[in-house]
């Protein structure tokens, strides 16, 4: 398709004003405090993945409200620890899949925690294992309008809290250096990584690519591609609900998390991306508190730089590992490993 968004020079300096609720910090502080107050153990069960160069554990950790969230922990076999770790969040509609599907970080010497997305895993890919036990009011198809009437009931409140708890969880694992943890993801995974970075202190880096849910007020209506089009469809039926809908989404907007993210970041953006329009990506990057670089792919859409971009992520992250601070303690977890 043809380019439809701002030009590259305009994107480089694009730092729009984005609505931020007065109680944003209190809202997320209470959300995380109540979730972290749940006394629940991390469960780890080694699995026979058929792979000989990595070890795989099936992990369940407590997320929002203590709900059990599944993940794969993949470790390079025989590596000396403690290891740097990458927490990866997955794309819209898919689940954590199978542990051998994403081995690039362990092959490069990192521990990797691949986190399931609650209630997803049945749209594409190879499945997920995490239900979402919480209900919501009327919604359009998909996930963006689930609980849209109230930020406290919104689906992504739970998902973003799960993400912060995934960072908490990986930092307690004996194989991991808690001062050298990064977050990453593409599309929905990029939005979740941004939220995790805004809600977690002491990360060594954040690597969001083509994130949805940034500068939502502009993105909805700029593109007719899902998932942002779900919001437009909802508003086409719930006429006059704009104010409430966009107020709820302001608690979830990547720009507002970017303003609080202290770790450095490397973004990836396709300048012909209709799913995560580049102006939304740059809005988050240019507001990033810890400083962010963007690698733009001029002739790509939502696929972005693919393997080429991962090579650049790897080089960028390795360059920052030596600057990681002292180890930090974990948060109220008991880990049980089942032989």
Structure description:
The protein has one domain (8-337): Alpha/Beta hydrolase fold, catalytic domain (Rossmann fold), CATH 3.40.50. The protein is built from 11 helices and 10 strands. The protein has helices at residues 8-12, 24-36, 104-107, 155-171, 188-199, 216-222, 228-237, 242-250, 254-258, 278-286, 306-321, and strands spanning 41-47, 54-62, 68-76, 83-89, 111-115, 176-186, 205-209, 265-270, 292-297, 334-337. A hairpin with a 6-residue loop joins strand 1 and strand 2 (54-62). Helix 2 packs across helix 4 (155-171), helix 4 (155-171) packs across helix 5 (188-199) and helix 6 packs across helix 7 (228-237). This is Cephalosporin-C deacetylase. Substrate binds at residue 92. It holds the Pfam family AXE1. Residues 1-318 form the Acetyl xylan esterase domain.
Keywords summarizing the entry:
single chain, 339 residues, CE7, AXE1_dom
Tell me the β content.
15-25%
N to C succession of SSEs: HHEEEEHEHEHEHHHHEHEHE
Number of helices: 11
Mean pLDDT comes to 92
Level-1 CATH class name: Alpha Beta
CATH superfamily: Alpha/Beta hydrolase fold, catalytic domain
CATH architecture: 3-Layer(aba) Sandwich
Which class best fits the helix and strand makeup? alpha/beta
Question: Alpha-carbon distance between the termini?
Answer: 52 Å
- Mass-distribution shape: globular
Number of domains: 1
Number of strands: 10
| Spatial order of strands in the largest sheet | 9-8-7-6-4-5-3-2-1-10
Helical residues, percent: 25-40%
Largest sheet: 10 strands, mixed
Low-confidence stretches: 325-339
Radius of gyration based on Cα positions = 19 Å
| CATH fold description | Rossmann fold
Organism: Microbacterium kyungheense
Protein name: Cephalosporin-C deacetylase
GO biological process, one term: polysaccharide metabolic process
GO molecular function: carboxylic ester hydrolase activity
């Amino acid at each position: 398709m043809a380019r439809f968004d701002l030009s590259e020079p305009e994107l480089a300096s694009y730092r729009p004003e984005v609505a931020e609720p007065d109680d944003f910090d209190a809202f997320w502080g209470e959300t995380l405090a109540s979730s972290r107050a749940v006394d629940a153990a991390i469960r780890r069960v080694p699995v026979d993945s058929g792979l000989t160069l990595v070890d795989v554990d099936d992990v369940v950790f407590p997320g929002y409200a203590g709900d059990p969230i599944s993940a794969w922990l993949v470790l390079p076999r025989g590596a000396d620890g403690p290891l740097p770790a990458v927490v990866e969040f997955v794309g819209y509609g898919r689940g954590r899949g199978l542990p051998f599907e994403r081995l690039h970080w362990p092959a490069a010497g990192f521990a990797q925690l691949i986190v399931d997305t609650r209630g997803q895993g049945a749209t594409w890919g190879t499945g997920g294992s995490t239900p979402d036990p919480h209900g919501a009011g009327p919604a359009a198809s998909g996930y963006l309008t689930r609980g849209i009437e109230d930020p406290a009931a919104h689906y992504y409140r739970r998902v973003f809290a799960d993400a912060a708890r995934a960072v908490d969880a990986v930092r307690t694992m004996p194989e991991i250096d808690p001062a050298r943890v990064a977050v990453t993801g593409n599309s929905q995974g990029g939005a979740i990584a941004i939220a995790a970075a805004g809600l977690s202190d002491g990360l060594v880096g954040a690597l969001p690519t083509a994130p949805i849910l940034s500068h939502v007020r502009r993105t909805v209506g700029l593109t007719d591609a899902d998932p942002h089009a779900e919001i437009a469809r909802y508003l086409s039926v719930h006429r006059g609900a704009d104010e409430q809908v966009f107020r709820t989404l302001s608690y979830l907007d990547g720009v507002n998390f970017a303003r609080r993210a202290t770790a450095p970041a490397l973004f990836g953006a396709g300048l012909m991306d209709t799913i995560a329009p580049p102006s939304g990506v740059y809005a988050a990057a240019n507001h990033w508190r810890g400083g962010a670089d963007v690698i733009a792919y001029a002739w790509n859409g939502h696929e972005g730089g693919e393997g080429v971009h991962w090579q650049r992520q790897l080089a960028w992250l390795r360059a920052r590992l030596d600057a990681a601070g002292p180890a930090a303690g974990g948060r109220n977890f008991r880990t049980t490993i089942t032989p």
